[in-house]
Amino acid sequence: MAKTYKKHTSSFKAKVSLEAVKEKKTVADLCQEHGLAASQIFAWKKQLEDGCDKVFENKQKNDHQGEIDRLHRVIGQLTAERDFLDRVLKH
To answer: pTM of the predicted model, to two decimals?
Structure first.
């Protein structure tokens, strides 16, 4: 008989891993409270610690994405105008 694994949401993983990082409860207490294996909590905690710097990187990238899109539109418009004027002036 195949073992089925429970799927956990990202918000649940974040909640449990933050509790583990805060160390207000032991990992054993968290295991009992949430019905998880200690190795799973340690894996989520490591994943949180390794990826926490990306939270701020993505924010800056998203802030500038609108400006980048606008500048690409302007470049496209200027290129089309330049090509049109180049054709008109050559004839």
So the answer is: 0.58
